[in-house]
Amino acid sequence: MVLKLVILPLVEQIGKKVFLTQAGHELNATCAEWLQTWERFEQTIADLKGMQQGRLRISAVTTTKYFMPRLLGPFCSQFPNIDISLEVVNRDGLLERLSRNQDDLYIMGVPPEEIDVEAEPFLDNPLVALAPASHPLAKQKRIPFKRLGQEKFLMRERGSGTRITMERLFAERDTPLNILMELGSNEAIKQAVAGGLGLALISQSTLSMDVNRKELTTLDVVGFPVMRAWYVLRPKGKQLSVVAEYFLQFLRENIRLLVPQF
Ligand code: PGA
């Protein structure tokens, strides 16, 4: 019998770019499946050992950086052998991770409609209208929403939950949204508002440890603050590990004690 060896390339080069061949894609998919199977095995073993060890993977939207790390501190000191990772990304990045089932739990303000999830609200997430303290509207009471149509706004980047909420609010109230500038972080937005560039709608969570509160004020717009919530999510039907279940319980029981300013 003659053994014939067939060598299949895994990548191919077209111009300056390298692409996976069909065999490369198959190998990639097989490795990904194998890794997931191995992780499930590791988690089962960790579950059998209870809270003595294990891994907790959380991803959270950018704006939660004002409270999520503080919340993890007491959990870590209670369970020092648990390996915790917190991935902070914007809403689009989080949905990408959710669709790939990359984490145990997901924290966000605007749950997706297009993915089947179990979403549980656990904390208020009011949206406020932020202005420089010297702004002419700063002393006015009960400003009609339509008046905001005459102002210029600083916006978060596309894919941000804050931005989606803002766009929805202006569209629902049939008010033009004048965007002066797009900025990729809440801190940059607050600095720009303090510098008198424009106004912003921003989660109140971002105002707790402020740069310089004296330079900023929240406007008394009718219907504001817009009451929203922070949600903890998981794909529908996902079996949570013992560690993730425990963290969920910890979140429900301690959130108001650990972040009293909200
Ligand atoms: P963001 O999300 O940090 O992506 O803007 C905030 C939110 O969902 O409310």
The CATH top-level class label of the largest domain: Alpha Beta
Low-confidence stretches: none
Tell me roughly what share of residues is in helical segments.
Answer: 25-40%
- CATH topology of the largest domain, what is it called? D-Maltodextrin-Binding Protein, domain 2
Description:
- With 262 residues, the chain is of the alpha/beta class.
- The protein has two domains: 51-123 and 230-257, Periplasmic binding protein-like II (D-Maltodextrin-Binding Protein, domain 2, 3-Layer(aba) Sandwich), CATH 3.40.190.10; 127-218, D-Maltodextrin-Binding Protein, domain 2 (3-Layer(aba) Sandwich), CATH 3.40.190.
- It has six helices and twelve strands.
- The protein has helices at residues 22-48, 68-78, 91-99, 161-172, 186-194, 242-258, and strands at 11-14, 17-20, 54-61, 82-89, 105-108, 117-124, 127-132, 152-156, 178-183, 200-203, 216-218, 229-235.
- 26% of the residues are buried.
- The site of 2-phosphoglycolic acid (PGA) has 14 residues, from helix 4.
Quick overview:
This protein has six helices and twelve strands.
Question: Which short descriptors sum up this protein?
Answer:
three-stranded antiparallel β-sheet; 32% helix; 262 residues; 2 domains; D-Maltodextrin-Binding Protein, domain 2
Topology:
Layout: E1 11-14, E2 17-20, H1 22-48, E3 54-61, H2 68-78, E4 82-89, H3 91-99, E5 105-108, E6 117-124, E7 127-132, E8 152-156, H4 161-172, E9 178-183, H5 186-194, E10 200-203, E11 216-218, E12 229-235, H6 242-258
Parallel strand pairs: 3-4, 3-5, 8-9
Antiparallel strand pairs: 1-2, 5-12, 6-12, 7-10, 7-11
2-phosphoglycolic acid (PGA) is lined by residues 61-63, 90-91, 108-110, 125, 156, 160-162, 203.
